[in-house]
Amino acid sequence: MKLIIGLGNPGKDYFATRHNAGFMAVDAFAKEIGATWKADAKRKALVASAVVNGKKIVLAKPQTFMNLSGDAAAALVSFYKVAPENTLLIHDDMDIEPGRMQFKKGGSAAGHNGVASVYERLGTQNVHRLRIGIGRPTEPRMASEDWVLGKLSTENTSKPLDIIAGMRDWIEGGIVKATNRWN
After folding, report:
1. What whole-number distance in Å separates Cα of residue 119 and Cα of residue 125?
2. I need a surface site. Which of 13, 20, 96, 115 has the fewest CB within 10 A?
3. Which range of residues forms the domain containing residue 43?
4. With bands split at pLDDT 50, 70 and 90, how would you rate the model's confidence at 73?
């Protein structure tokens, strides 16, 4: 089994913001594979599941706010009994230019509070990550918080079909196949 967790903030105020790149990625993948979202209050997440190339996949969108994403991630990993290395965390990343994405095995949260929360609650950094580039503020005095909560334009994001293909590569061949093809 593979668990794919897209990070974001719940609610219409955060829809289509840079910080919700993880939500948008798992939404696109769910649509592609015909999976339907259902609320899972015990795990504080929306979940969707399907079988992709013979492998059971659970997609999740934590319904906590970003800084508490680890609460939902820990509950999901525990409930589905998924090893952290079979978990893909998808999130926005200011250190990657818009339109690019990068797979990574573990590593520092680099100031991303959602990733830090997941690491803390899981007690490990041994999760795989798909980092979606959102770049840095274009205005010199703009605070990072204002940037990540700003609307994500379609011309400044990774292509949904690339993200879906990257997720399929990770499902089928793990982090090695995904990094070799997409990094």
Report:
1. 5
2. 13
3. 2-182
4. very high
Q: CA torsion 163→7→44→65, rounded to 10°?
A: -150
Q: Tell me which residue of 71, 48, 63 sits closest to 122, measured CA to CA.
A: 71
**Beta-strand pair 87-93/128-133:** parallel
CA distance 160 to 25: 7
Q: Catalytic site residue 112?
A: no
DSSP annotation string for 13-41: GGTTBGGGHHHHHHHHHHHHHT---EEEG
Number of domains the chain contains = 1
Indicate the helix (H) or strand (E) that contains 73.
helix 69-80
The DSSP H or E segment spanning 79 is helix 69-80
Beta strand pairing call for 2-6 and 55-62: parallel
The CATH number given to whatever domain includes residue 108 is 3.40.50.1470
How confident is the model over 9-31, as pLDDT tens digits? 998 888 888 888 999 999 999 99
Does the pTM exceed 0.70? Answer: yes
Q: Which of these is catalytic: 19, 91, 112, 128?
A: 19
Residue 152: CB partners within 8 Å, gap ≥ 6?
Answer: 16, 17, 18, 20, 21, 24, 134
